[in-house]
Amino acid sequence: MALAECVPNVSEGRRANVVDLIVSAADAVPGARVLDVSSDASHNRSVITMVGAPDPLRAAVLALYAAAIASIDMRTHSGAHPRLGAVDVVPFIPLEGIAMSECVTLARETGALVAERFRLPVFLYEEAATTPARRNLADIRRGEFEGLPARLALPEWAPDFGAATPHPSAGATVIGARMPLIAFNVNLSTSRLDIAKAIAASVRQSSGGLPFVKALGIPLADRHIVQVSMNLTNYEQTPIRRAFDAVAAAAARHRVAVLESEIVGLLPAAAMDGITPEDLQLTGFRDDQVLENRLRRL
Description:
This protein has 298 residues and is an alpha+beta fold. Helix content is 30%, strand content 24%.
């Protein structure tokens, strides 16, 4: 059976009842299964991991959009993480018996349905992108929700699907297909955002740092500390241990200690080969954060 993964990121991480409603809507679709939910109040964001065959997975994503759009108003949303809409980004990822090209088709079909059904501008990214300028999520999301009217007014930023006007409360959304990535955050023993941003710049690929690493410096206001928030888009080329060591070394140069690190969502088992959670100062890491362990329980 063809099995794909989908990891919607929704712009709600503080109201547990709203997150539960959104997750329940997706999980109620026969043939799709929610494997994991990771919510963060400082980011005000939840990362939901789902799996299924293409048709039920598409249906679960549409149910998630309906619940999220009815529950989240971006006009009153605030959080440390960049965001474009109520359902910010929805990547499809090949797992078993399905090719990347099929996930691209799934992403594009889903994007067309989302635009038609919810009147949302939809951008396609990564492998599903229609132009090179739209492969990178950060490029699409520049200006965030508040900058959408000006962004959509530019001819080169007309959405791939839907009208070039933001949804009043849900903004816009980004849908695509990609290989697995690891969302990996490192928390620092300082409240200085300038230090976190400098470290993020030193490790991310776009600034001359590590290949296949995207990184931001983010404040965790409730804890009075800062975080280097990373996406590792190819953990085989830049292993998680290498990314952690690079952040720790840069922090030491700024005379700042690493407090802890965390994995957001799930990660492939191979990403932890040869290392332990202690090597990464991981807090709260569980065996069921390994994707293969979750899949065995289906």
